[in-house]
Amino acid sequence: MNFRGYTSDPAIHAADLAGSVPPELSLTWLSESRDRPLLIGIATTTAITSLVVTCRLASSCLTQKRLTPSDRLTLIATPLHLLHTLLSHRLLTLHASFHIEYLQYVTPPSTLSHIALLKHAAQLTQITALLLARLSGLAYFYSISTSPGPETNTRENLNSSLLLRGIRLVAGGVIFGGVIQGLRTFQVSADADGGVAAGVGDAGEGDAVFNASVSLLCGVLVFAIPSVMVWFGGHGGKIPGQKGGGVRGVVMGGVLATSLSLLRLSLARQSAVSLDPSWEYGPILAVQGAEVGMTLIAVSVPGIIPTLADCEIFLACDKLTKNKEILADCRIFFLVDGLDEFQEARDRQFSMTMKLKTGHSIPTETRSSVFQAGDFLSSKKAFDPGQRIKLQNLTMGDISEVVNQKLLRNS
Q: Which parts of the chain span the membrane according to its record (predicted)?
């Protein structure tokens, strides 16, 4: 212990003994670190994101038996988010977020080069993961907008057409913004000479303020789409029940994701004018990961809702097909909200109804019930939550597409 303070970092002691550390610098100040809370925050965000995305993909597999384009984009973005987390952990363990004097006087040149390389990799990974996450949300909005609602008219068709064009334009803008951010990542400041400047501050991630500004603009554009859908009533007047709740959930998650983008821009501006940019790098790194994670969570909300809301109303009729004499209380659940394409769901409904109508072993008295059920489906009435189409005296062997189907709801 002396007037310069105390540190347990052996690297600082070695540099001090070698005379690399100026005598006016405090050893205690050199060893200051915020890495532990940053690592905990990054790990927590990644764990929550992984859990939500896993529930979303499991829901798609259970309810739809397939992955939608939105699911596939999320499936690619999630490993990239995990990779960004690993790179962030490595950067923090290399003390990339210590004071700039630590990097100047204590960190070896080889480690500085390693830090600069990892910063480029982390930034490119974050840009790619965020781009795919936003495109996943746009793919979901596009699938809803191309699905015909229960009632449409000329005005609603015009609104849907304008919305589709808007989604395409936003998708193009998001892709262009991602490419521009990637190109700017390779730029270094004019004073970066491949030494310390290449491993600290903005030089390691291109123009941080520019990238953060572009990211904020892209986020606002992406999450403005569901806001417009909710404001104007969706693709054709009303968004079906669970889809409507899903879109509103995306809006709420989008507000949080956009707030993180705004926070990232604020930190980047603060780092740009700071005399100690490496000290500001740690929080920026954590917010970048949280920005990707919150975007993935926001676009995964619609896929999680069926799992939470309807996990108890599935009916596995394939297990009953072996018994040809089941004649009581068969309840059929028609899946609409679990599919991205409303038309496909509707085709399944009526093809199954026709299957029942033409079934050779359906008793005569049951056929009238089947016709009534078909007429009820074709009418534009809404089902109340928990309501079921009840067909008495129905032979289960005549039902082919009833496995894991859900109750039709219209809000």
A: 38-59, 162-183, 214-234, 246-267
